[in-house]
């Protein structure tokens, strides 16, 4: 026990022994303090602005374009701090939410605004999504940066009238993110106005709809220790319809939802044919192709 | 003339601070941010803030305490505002500068476990066990009560117990 601090110091000293003096640091700091040479942070901000402008130019309202947009963003950052190929791989995985539990833990409709608290809990604690938010209004693509939002978030829907947002009137408000150290999850609260409740509203994270109608709750609570909402009916009276890729498990009597989204219903399953979800129409390009010489898939499976 | 002298004096102070504390601060930032380039940004930002506030530093704490407090704040801030990045929470030693001293397996594992600690625990472990600050100094730096520092240290050590046990054995697990 007495060796604890020494062991930690010894371990870190060895692991960090490669950290060395930066001979240019002094001049960079002095110059930055005079404004001659902007610090790295400001340079990044400039490149971020450029990325945003170009992304706005290239964006379209299609989900596929969203995907390309993200790809493009990541590629732009490739030479700085991220590995685009690896990140796209993560995105692919997140598409099926294999690594992320997504739950709408609370929703509140006050007659003019819809607020939702969405909880993201990584199933694999090695991952989290970086800060980036993105939404569409009709056919117009709009992307925004929110420093308190640490997730990729798409909001779409013909019934949405975006009202909240400090810098951009079209932006929704992401009021707070709540990081819970207990389960390493993140909860965000988003609020936006809805001008026509007869139109469907969908929130997609990322590319998956997690809520497709307004929810209702007694009050707005944002905590990782959320108690369950009071049941309007006795628990045994619920009649749960199964979750699909666009809807949560929903009680057909009281409308209450629970759990996460179901999986896409990809058809057909063959690996050499583009698979399409017959519920939300999202398609996955075929992973393989047929070798014309053998008539079988390159993966070796004879279909 | 006096202005020029004062500027030279400030630059001399900055140079001295960098000579003494750049490496410890860089190491701290590397562990916090798990990225050598981000750590370089953080070090620059730390010294920039210190240089800007040099005239306001009244010596109420040691220079090291003052600089570490700035560095911790910078790192916290950078971790909160990571932009357009996917943060890879997989922790490997590859995220640190190439070491010149190679530790045995158990110490490497211990380093990784330290890097995996949640931020609040990482704060106290780095400042106490690595930088050698007392719990009271850490409390003052982080703005938390002394008892909270002790409690976090205890929690962190409990989490690290397995690694520490391995470190004491000094051998790689089979």
Description:
The complex is a heterodimer of chains A (303) and B (174). Among the domains of chain A are: 40-95, no CATH class; 102-227, no CATH class. In chain A, 22% of the residues lie in helices and 25% in strands. Chain A has helices spanning 4-15, 25-34, 40-58, 63-77, 84-95, and strands at 100-109, 113-122, 127-128, 133-137, 140-144, 154-156, 160-161, 173-180, 185-194, 202-204, 209-211, 240-241, 249-251, 257-258, 266-267, 275-277, 283-284. In chain A, strands 1, 2, 7, 8 and 9 form a 5-stranded antiparallel sheet that branches. The longest helix of chain A has 19 residues, at 40-58. Chain A is extended and about 65 Å long. The relative contact order of chain A is 0.10. Chain B has 174 residues and is mostly helical. Chain B has 2 domains: 1-81, Orthogonal Bundle (Rna Polymerase Sigma Factor, Chain: A), CATH 1.10.1740.10; 103-174, Arc Repressor Mutant, subunit A. The interface between A and B is large, with 54 and 61 residues. β3 of chain A pairs antiparallel with β1 (87-88) of chain B.
Concise overview:
The complex is a heterodimer of chains A (303) and B (174). In chain A, 22% of the residues lie in helices and 25% in strands.
Write the layout of secondary structure elements.
The complex is a heterodimer of chains A (303) and B (174).
Chain A: H1 4-15, H2 25-34, H3 40-58, H4 63-77, H5 84-95, E1 100-109, E2 113-122, E3 127-128, E4 133-137, E5 140-144, E6 154-156, E7 160-161, E8 173-180, E9 185-194, E10 202-204, E11 209-211, E12 240-241, E13 249-251, E14 257-258, E15 266-267, E16 275-277, E17 283-284
Parallel strand pairs in A: 4-6
Antiparallel strand pairs in A: 1-2, 2-9, 4-5, 6-10, 7-9, 8-9, 10-11, 12-13, 13-14, 15-16, 16-17
Helix pairs in contact in A: 3-4, 4-5
Chain B: H1 2-33, H2 36-52, H3 63-80, E1 87-88, H4 105-116, H5 119-130, H6 135-142, H7 146-159, H8 161-169
Helix pairs in contact in B: 1-2, 1-3, 2-3, 4-8, 5-7, 6-7
